[in-house]
Amino acid sequence: MAKMNLLQAINNALITAMTDDERVMVFGEDVGHFGGVFRATSNLQEKFGRGRCFNTPLTEQGIIGFANGLASQGSVPVAEIQFGDYIFPAFDQIVNETAKWRYRSGGQFSCGTLTIRTPYGGGIAGGHYHSQSPEAYFAHTPGLKIVIPRNPYQAKGLLLASIRDDNPVLFMEPKRLYRASVGEVPEEDYELPLGKAEVVSEGSDITLLAWGAQMEIIEKAAEMAQNDGISCEIIDLRSILPWDVETVCASVMKTGRLLINHEAPLTGGFASEVAATVQERCFLHLESPITRVCGLDTPYPLAHEKEYMPDHLKTYEAIKRCVNF
Amino acid sequence: MAKMNLLQAINNALITAMTDDERVMVFGEDVGHFGGVFRATSNLQEKFGRGRCFNTPLTEQGIIGFANGLASQGSVPVAEIQFGDYIFPAFDQIVNETAKWRYRSGGQFSCGTLTIRTPYGGGIAGGHYHSQSPEAYFAHTPGLKIVIPRNPYQAKGLLLASIRDDNPVLFMEPKRLYRASVGEVPEEDYELPLGKAEVVSEGSDITLLAWGAQMEIIEKAAEMAQNDGISCEIIDLRSILPWDVETVCASVMKTGRLLINHEAPLTGGFASEVAATVQERCFLHLESPITRVCGLDTPYPLAHEKEYMPDHLKTYEAIKRCVNF
Amino acid sequence: MKDRNHLSRVNVSHSATIIENGLIDIPMLQLLQADGTPHKDATLPDIDKETALKMYNTMQYVRVLDERMIAAQRQGRISFYLACTGEEASTVGSAAALQDVDMIMSQYREQGTLAYRGYTTEQFMNQMFSNEKEPNKGRQMPIHYGAKELNFMTISSPLGTQIPQASGYAYGQKMAGQEAITICYFGEGAASEGDFHAGLNMAAVLNCPVIFFCRNNGYAISTPAEEQFAGDGIASRGLGYGIKTIRVDGNDIMAVYAATQQARKIALAENCPVLIEAMTYRLAAHSTSDDPTGYRSKDEEEKWREKDPIRRFASWLQQQGWLDEAADQAHVEQTRQEVLTELKRVEKVPVCVIDEIIEDVYDTPPWHLQEQLRELKAHISKYPDAYPKTSGRINNG
Amino acid sequence: MKDRNHLSRVNVSHSATIIENGLIDIPMLQLLQADGTPHKDATLPDIDKETALKMYNTMQYVRVLDERMIAAQRQGRISFYLACTGEEASTVGSAAALQDVDMIMSQYREQGTLAYRGYTTEQFMNQMFSNEKEPNKGRQMPIHYGAKELNFMTISSPLGTQIPQASGYAYGQKMAGQEAITICYFGEGAASEGDFHAGLNMAAVLNCPVIFFCRNNGYAISTPAEEQFAGDGIASRGLGYGIKTIRVDGNDIMAVYAATQQARKIALAENCPVLIEAMTYRLAAHSTSDDPTGYRSKDEEEKWREKDPIRRFASWLQQQGWLDEAADQAHVEQTRQEVLTELKRVEKVPVCVIDEIIEDVYDTPPWHLQEQLRELKAHISKYPDAYPKTSGRINNG
Ligand SMILES: Cc1ncc(C[n+]2csc(CCOP(=O)(O)OP(=O)(O)O)c2C)c(N)n1
Ligand SMILES: Cc1ncc(C[n+]2csc(CCOP(=O)(O)OP(=O)(O)O)c2C)c(N)n1
Ligand SMILES: [Mg+2]
Ligand SMILES: [Mg+2]
């Protein structure tokens, strides 16, 4: 075990994967010599050579197009998109190509070895274009997996599992936790399961569901609620696609209430999918409407960032509204 | 009044708009001399000149980038993307630029005059890449409007309203109705409201909601259900963003049940947003879970197209399950 | 850290020089004249009779296949087809210059390449009928071929996407130490996509052994090349990327063969991309959904029909004494028969069982897809007449 | 229908010619030598003392602004800054060659252009502090300037997006019959984006009066130009698009001024795009979030510091007898003061009231945004301490 922040855990996972399998290659804008603008890929070029860790030209559609071809050839690309906000030029390559490659070829070819890493989320005074949480844009795409860790331990285990999983994975890193989240991380190789949510703490009155950096928020809200005598069950979804309907529904069957929190705008956010599914499967167990505490339906504003965010106070208020419905 | 098919209604709307306002310009791949691969822009170049109706090079990101700039200058671009499946290279220009232009500039500049037309949907043996229904990918984007007509009359009135609305509109045309749907269309200028659903027929037992080509499907299913003595209220959503929560909720308050049908895959489709919102606002009125009848969570398959589609039979069965819950 | 100097190659001038069209003149390699006679100063590539005849026969094969399949589409037997007619020299000539280990990533009009690799009539028919014998499992429209054993990547409709993919594939081949390259085909229309720019630039910077083969056939559906770009074709872009570039007469199979051989040699030896622009013409409609009379004249088509690549090569072969006219006729006739027979046989082959609808989305179907399949099968069993293609073979086990 | 012939410009050759790097040599226009003396054979553009001094003073202004704002960021007074240092000649020289009616679409490192247009220190400060006086309403990070009255389009972070947008804007200007062009700035890094390709090609084909101004400053954050492209800079791409192209010494303001004047004239007269590549160097860190010691040497930076564009222009002005050193010093000092004073004043200006959070998403806020605002305001009123920037001015009316 060693104390690492989330960035160090990512870096450690990449070293582990590259040491273990020489087909693993890491690339993207500034990831080479410099080690990435957040330094997640520090020292990889030194350790593994320019062939396996390199800068690309500044083109996200090119990075993912290149990565798709490389994956279909049998290499194991780990491509970085510098900010989640800049993943959209690669949308076609991800949604029409990466995700459909195996299906359209009847399983003859696939991009299963591909992992796309990208930092996402707000709370860092990044405004419009350094704050978005684009997971829901991808969650409508059969063939993709989407994974989001909440702390360094999860980050290493989930990233290693993502790299080795034989399906393309979009691995989204909560950037406001990069240095803020510090914890014990095993130095050895380990994997955490994809597609499985984690019940972080048990409770009986309401289920709180989130992922990534918003886990801190719901935990804080749960503490406040506890002072009011409300017992919250807290779940980290971890995988957005495919997502763990079973664990979430089992919890809601027990608590009778569900609150989902995410940073992305409310409308069409992934909370809508969770709510739609859970109301169908747990209809007779629900004691109050499923509540979504999310970003506003506006672009991400800089000066009003604090107000925009679905923070612990908004969550706490929503918990009370749910329980007192 | 004249009998027109959906394509002719679109063409008629474009002629009306271009005659009315000389700032209107129509462009895209093959839309010029040839009049588009579906012939929606037939004769426009002849009538209005090459300056106002023209072919572009084959680049969707370029078409929308160009259209964004043109809109911000004060012209009124109506850009065509040849197939909805090929809109993804323009995803960044639409989601990060078109939609955020006004907000990021504090209202100094905007793309409000832009309309993007694109054919969408399956049922034409188009397989993977000529069948997708990508509305939900865009519905998570504040700043955009999304509009889908179900017949020629709607098409003309909604397209004219979209072109003249001072917000960017993604206007999606159900291509399997292009020639199949024929109806009376006024020859004069008229607009239908954006953001408003239409109650197509009233009923008391369950609300059926769809848009575009799927309207036929739910109408057919409603007929079958009527033979079983089930009375369906049928709503055409027409605008996906912003959508008419009021009309839908008023109907569900009355019927106590809701079924939503769309062609796109279930997970993360727009039905999830509708279900999430309605269960929250109509919680105490719901007599059965809100049901989604949608495409499978797979890419769009050619040989199994019939099986993939959320057709009238699947809808009919789901209506019965709902009512007998 | 070494000092970098991005000006090191730059010369200074003291009056503004405008770089513009016409500054360089990119010639087009042509070895055979219209009548099949080699140009006097031309050196033909080494080629033996067997290879030459295989090339010729493949051209003829594809021409016949195109004719038959267009007819089959008109008869309503298949939903869609897209012909290579007029571009047989570009596709077959380049294929002949490759090795079987080379990966082919094509656009959609390259059935000549595929036929040269050994794709059989039965395979063509299986694909066109989207049946269960087709390795792509009938999931895509006709003409979206794919054959792993032939190193032919399954075709995808979105244009240009294969270009950066080919750079990545080639990079992987290099890293794996293979003596192999990737060839990437695309039209001059697709070359307008952003992916073209990304793919060529990345290949140049990352030293990928890939041949970018552009078929400049004058049209992208109805859009003529003059409304597609304002520069000197696609070749003139190679210079901007620092990519070695050859322009070739795409209707002269000897020139295509020679250029592609040379390109392959350079790509492998120098670990770098090479761009080939083949100047040709799409003699057929864009596809069976298209009617070119709406945008070009018969006259123009006629001028190009006179440059028929098959006829030119036939003349050369005759000059070598290698072409037996009777055998040629017999081959054409036999191909016609074969296509017809296979077509009739294959159109009876059923589509995949419904269980396949959820396969290959992921490596194994997750629970939600299994659930969706279970429900679907129950539904089909309830309404078998509504789903005739699959209801006969439902296995609810 | 007229016959089209996409081969009409093409010459035939009978042996393969490989087009490659070095085939053309794109020179760089330089008028002033390092010491400010004009090259002997150079013709300087007509320029009067007033314009020359305005250019010089703007360069100095931006240099001082950059220094002050970097310091302010270090002190934690603003969150972010990005300097133009080293590139003042490129940005100011090009701005000076334009007319006020011309639209400027910039990347983010062009504060020289903006200052030349007349953006005031107060406006700079308002933007940097994201306050309610800022026309963009504080919604974007520092340096994302925008000023409608100055025809300066609000900056957007995603790189390259403004390139096809500029083509569209210019097309609109032409259709509206305006005597105006659009200038579009971008870095050599952004030129790798697919949007670059789309934008330049469309401008060439659709005859858009736009100047594409590439600042090739050697780096995209840490990525050196040699890992960005393998061709001869960005200028060599102009040829591929059939776009008239000029390469210029970006540290020689006279050369930049002359080239941009000429480009504007061509763009307007011929309704066509012109590409300018300005060879320069980013002397500062990429931004206040960056530390260049991780990827380049002090030595290399030093070499470029010697080519300081301000010093070169100062020497020339001195040679004309136009530069009064005392006045210059006073101007620098006064700018420092002004920036400091405005900074202190403006940092007290509040951000917009919370009602603005839902404005400008659409032309008017739809009901769901109004509902979200109502709930938000009620929430802020309940927890005023948690939202100190806005709670003091909640109006629940
Ligand atoms: C991204 C994308 N946009 C549009 C289309 C529709 N489309 C199919 S083929 C075609 C023309 C392609 O022309 P070109 O690349 O020159 O190839 P050719 O047909 O001439 O061989 C178009 C526009 C597509 N398949 N993909
Ligand atoms: C689409 C996109 N990708 C990545 C980034 C992150 N980013 C910001 S600036 C920059 C480097 C730009 O380099 P260049 O275009 O050369 O401009 P310079 O900073 O040198 O002026 C990068 C990668 C971005 N803003 N947008
Ligand atoms: Mg073509
Ligand atoms: Mg740069």
Describe the strand arrangement of the main beta sheet of chain C, using strand numbers. Answer: 3-4-5-9-8
Task: Tell me the radius of gyration of chain C.
Answer: 23 Å
Determine the number of helices of chain A (DSSP H or I, runs of at least 4 residues). Answer: 12
Number of domains of chain C: 2
Strand segment count of chain C: 9
Mean pLDDT over all positions of chain A: 98
What separation lies between the terminal Cα atoms of chain C? 66 Å
CATH superfamily of the largest domain in chain C: Thiamin diphosphate (ThDP)-binding fold, Pyr/PP domains
| Most extensive chain interface and residues per partner | C-D, 83 and 83 residues
Tell me the strand percentage band of chain A. Answer: 15-25%
Q: What general form of chain C does the structure show?
A: globular
Strand order of the largest sheet of chain A: 3-2-4-5-7-6-12
Quaternary organisation: heterotetramer
Distinct small molecules:
thiamine diphosphate, magnesium ion
Give an account of the 3D structure.
Chain A is of the alpha/beta class. Chain A has twelve helices and 14 strands. In chain A, the strands form three sheets. A seven-stranded mixed sheet of chain A has the order 3-2-4-5-7-6-12, with helices on both faces. The longest helix of chain A is centred in the first third of the chain and has 15 residues. The model of chain A has no long low-confidence stretch (mean pLDDT 98). Chain C contains 13 helices and nine strands. Chain C folds into two domains: 335 residues, Thiamin diphosphate (ThDP)-binding fold, Pyr/PP domains (Rossmann fold); 39 residues, no CATH class. In chain C, helix 8 links the parallel strand 8 and strand 9. Chain C is globular, with a radius of gyration of 23 Å. In chain C, the strands form two sheets. A five-stranded parallel sheet of chain C has the order 3-4-5-9-8, sandwiched between helices. The longest helix of chain C has 26 residues. With 397 residues, chain C is an alpha/beta fold. Chains C and D meet through strand 1, strand 2, helix 6, helix 7 and strand 8 of C and strand 1, strand 2, helix 6, helix 7 and strand 8 of D. One magnesium ion binds next to strand 6 of chain D. Chains C, D: Keywords: Oxidoreductase, Thiamine pyrophosphate. Chains C, D: It catalyses: N(6)-[(R)-lipoyl]-L-lysyl-[protein] + 3-methyl-2-oxobutanoate + H(+) = N(6)-[(R)-S(8)-2-methylpropanoyldihydrolipoyl]-L-lysyl-[protein] + CO2. Chains C, D: Its EC number is 1.2.4.4. Chains C, D: Belongs to the BCKDHA family. Chains C, D: It comes from Fluctibacter halophilus. Chains A, B: It is an enzyme of class 1 (oxidoreductase).
